[in-house]
Amino acid sequence: MAVVLRKCKRNGVKLVQQTCSIGFLKKRLPIVEWLPRYNLEKFQGDLIAGLTVGLTVIPQGLAYAAVAELPLQYGLYSAFMGCFIYCLFGTSKDVTLGPTAIISLMTAEYAKGEPTLAIALCLCAGLVQFAMGVLQLGFLVNFMAFPVISGYMSAAALIIGCGQLKLIFGLKDVRRDFIWNIYDTFRKLPETNHWDLTLGVISFVILLIMKWLKDRDWDKNRDPFTPLTTRQRVGRKAVWVIGTGRNALIVIATTILAGVLFSNNIKPFTMTKDVPPGFPDVGPPSFSYQHNNRTVEGEEFLSHLGAGIAVLPLIAILETIAYGKAFASRNKYRIDPTQELLALGMSNIVSSFFGSYPMSCSASRTAINSTSGVRTPLGGIFAGLLVILALAFIMPYFRYIPSAVLGAVIIASVINMFEYQAIPKQWRIHKQDLLVWMACFLCVLLLGIQFGILVGVGLGLIFELYGLAKPGTKVDIIDCCPKIAVMRFEKGLSFPASDFIVTTIHNAGLDEPPYKPVILDFTHVSHLDFSVIRALSISVEEYATNNTPLYFACVSRSLEMKLKKAIKDLQCFPTVQLATEAILDEGVHGCIGMGFTEGQNRGTRRITPGTGASTEDGDVHQPILMTELSSDHLDVSSDTGEVLQNNISSSDSSSTEDGDDPPSLPRIQLQSAFQDSSSGGEEPRNLTNSNF
């Protein structure tokens, strides 16, 4: 007991020393690392990038709040505090946190348009993410393979885009579920507001044109040795600025147009609802709300959040880490995934006190931040300050924003999320992944995001477990006497494959008489668990019972030690060639069950022309090589190495009896891949006519 206490004390002291060190502080509070090196040049880059991102997040926040089925101001409540917290704890200079399309869609599904539920969901998501960061459980997102991620993102993009058609057409009372949404949209097409439709289509086309101009490679056909003129440089910079701020520009322009018409008592467009000005109420989230004239709280309140408490944090983690790694690789720096979990969790926890719904990393705003020349995470501070200014001064004017324009902004933002190009690639490369993609895609559309993700992950795990239960094997037959089967495993072996291993090894050598010796090639095997070793020991006993060798080759030292502890008479060889030679050496002395029968002469080794070991892999050489044989076969004594007389043809024998010289036979060279115990390891001998 005293030893245990001393060990605990040492570990505790070591943990305290590590926690209180400067290195730990820099690791868990990254701003301490880069802030002392901050200068005016970095400030300039962060200021430009922050203002650019701020102009993008304001219209996007309003639009994504509509996707989340919340009042528009909650989109801005979710857009500023995350920037401040991430500046302290984040490790990526490019990542910007805030409302995103996928998280907004999931919020609509779990919060059902109730702001109290959305804010509580933000707090719960932050707590889960922070706990995963402390416990270093970020690896769990690795179970979501690319087909699952691509499938649910494509389905979510389709759901979001179709959900905004009601704003483009100016329709009312359209249900949220995907199938009913499509049905109601087509059913109510006669009620279309043509002014909304015209404005929405024009806005959408302008947004696409601006994006195309921004993303176009203007230097593609230009001579690299010809310098740009001042007019060209200014023009390209203007195109980039307009393309980057296209959402803000289109919202401002249409808001001014609608405001002028509204002031003249002309109301052709469907407007957004009134947005209350000012800063959100600061305080802890409430876990109760009024529903159908009664108070919902406690367990019932949490039950309304449902699976969103677990599913939504994982999706947010996936987005943040994936985009963070992508931009870190592009800009040649590294991020700490564990610290990113902590930063995302802290951002959601603190933001929930300011009326925010769940947030994550935005791909579009992160790309804008990177291309705008951001230098440090401090750029997020300027974006957050711009959002606060919007909340303080221009919120009353948001009531003039046409709903069709917000719908166009959302559709233009999510149109690239549909990864249609992944379908033909998966079909060509791995059709099994396409099945996972389609299953996840359809289940998200028909059953919901959480069920679609569960089906995709479950189907992917089933395919993976099937591969573990039936690992790839290859059996090559060495055509010698006796025939030898070389069984190669293409990857590691684990317990689901136990029965498969026993059956496959049995079929390789004991399927039908005459039985064949088997060599197990472990070149590609790096892991064995207890169940697999037990299965191998069963196979060794089965082969020993049938007097047939089962040898192991190319086994690593660690695995060989494990096998020797479980298998008593283990036969391991460094290479397949040495194992083959050992089997052939036993074959010389006539092992029953190795292609020999009781009636055969055990002291005779039969050599048949044209037979030999397979040299396909280069690791097994031909055990016996004969050239220029004039008869079908020769019997060679294993004791003396001499060719026996019983194989000389009758005509040859008669000529000898008549006193004539024996017929002249071609010179034969016999090479043995093994050494007979009787010959004492002599070199191969030349057999001439005198041997007969």
Model description:
- This protein starts with a helix and ends in a 5-residue tail after the last strand.
- Among the domains are: 352 residues, no CATH class; 116 residues, 2-Layer Sandwich (Transcription Regulator spoIIAA).
- The strands form six sheets. It has a five-stranded mixed β-sheet with strand order 5-6-7-8-9. Strands 1-4 form a two-stranded antiparallel ribbon. The protein has a two-stranded antiparallel sheet with strand order 2-3.
- 38% of the residues are buried.
- Helices cover 55% and strands 7% of the residues.
- The longest helix has 28 residues.
- Strand 8, helix 26 and strand 9 form a beta-alpha-beta unit.
- It is elongated and about 105 Å long.
- With 692 residues, the protein is α/β, with parallel strands linked by helices.
- It has 28 helices and 15 strands.
Task: Provide the residue-averaged pLDDT.
Answer: 80
End-to-end distance: 84 Å
State the strand order across the main sheet.
5-6-7-8-9
Gross morphology is elongated
| Major sheet description | 5 strands, mixed
State the helical fraction. 40-55%
- Class by alpha and beta content: alpha/beta
Strand content: 5-15%
- Total count of strands: 15
| Low-confidence regions | 588-692
Q: What is the CA-atom radius of gyration, in angstroms?
A: 38 Å
- Tally the helices: 28
